[in-house]
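Each lists sequence, tokenised fold; shown next:
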Amino acid sequence: MTLEQIKEILPTLENVEFQLENGTFVPEHFHVTEIGIINKNFIDCGGTIRNEKVVNFQLWNADDYEHRLKPRKLLNIINLSQEKLGIENSEIEVEYQADTIGKYDLDFNGQHFILKNKTTACLAQDACGIPAEKTKRDLSELKVNPANSCTPGSGCC
């Protein structure tokens, strides 16, 4: 989800709710403690220089049980961050701490924002020797040429 997409969704909501893919909700008294830009400049294992840029939201589960972030307030925080930091429309990455700080992609299911698990990957599989995944086939799908096959009792097996 991009920054512009969340800005379009927020005015249609009564509450801001974040849910992990496993169904667990971020406690409703969370705070958005940061909105910023993260630039990641790196080289992959194949030697290609890469640059990634995301808008980062940090969610914090505070002991402020009376706090509820409303959509208008989050929209105001987003607009302020764009004005002061020059944030452009980019994909959103959410930081949220459970056992450790996790980074999530963001989606929306029509009711809640979904924190989508991120995974690592090799970006240069062709350059670092990882074999291509073989297509799995069911043996019953293979065509048999009777001239090249053995039958019980034929002595070829």
